[in-house]
Amino acid sequence: MNKKIIGFTQSIAFFAALIAVWYTIVQSGVWSPYVLPSPESVWEYLVENTGNGKIPNAILVTLGRLLIGYAIGLLIGIPAGLLMAKFKFLNRTLGVLALGLQALPSVCWVPLACIWFGQTETALLFVVVMGTLWSVILSTENGVRHISPIYSQAAKTMGASSWYTLIHVTLPASAPYIVSGMKQGWAFAWRSLMAAEIYVVVISGFGIGQYLHYGRELQRMNQVIGIMFVIIFIGLVADKTLFSPIERRLHRKWGTGLTSS
After folding, report:
1. CA torsion 25→216→197→200, rounded to 10°?
2. pTM listed for this prediction
3. Which of 1, 44, 144, 208 is the most exposed place for a label (fewest CB within 10 A)?
């Protein structure tokens, strides 16, 4: 049997078992339905609010914010990482700053964003950019630093300038590492936005993080768990359909030996 079919079957069986355990716990009455709703209750919430457009609209609002903030983070982070790899001064200064700020939980940026920008879209975008930026900078610098020197040596032998070599040789060769950093930056940006949408109320559009927050406030646990499933689903789709295929292709092209999905 095809390995992909076997893997898919195993995944389905595993999650079916988890739902069965969930259902059994609910039926046992160990916890109140207000604490742990049944799978049917969560499913009904998802079906109803997908049908009336609330969840799809919230997803579009959230993804719009995410894509704008993520793009800004990439536009700043990739050039900064290249410069950091080229100049040791930036590596000793910006590199240390990026390493420290990457370790800072994304939710820490939310109070600053609220004070600086108020309850606005700008505050949400700021948090997303901060969640994206540092991973992208570090992965770009790491990728440039770890590629084989034979590429740049060959380019210089043929008369290429330092900047030409950096842009047309070093950058493509480090692409597998940069994409890995983009993937990590996407994950951090996603988490950052969820935290921001919980605390920053923007009347211009409700995102899925705000639905998660109001589910908690109104003690609708079926809404909380349902939105959590939506968040997980979007994250899996982004990884499996976008980042992982590109990452594998680039690693195979440059022989960097990535075998995992």
Report:
1. -160
2. 0.80
3. 1
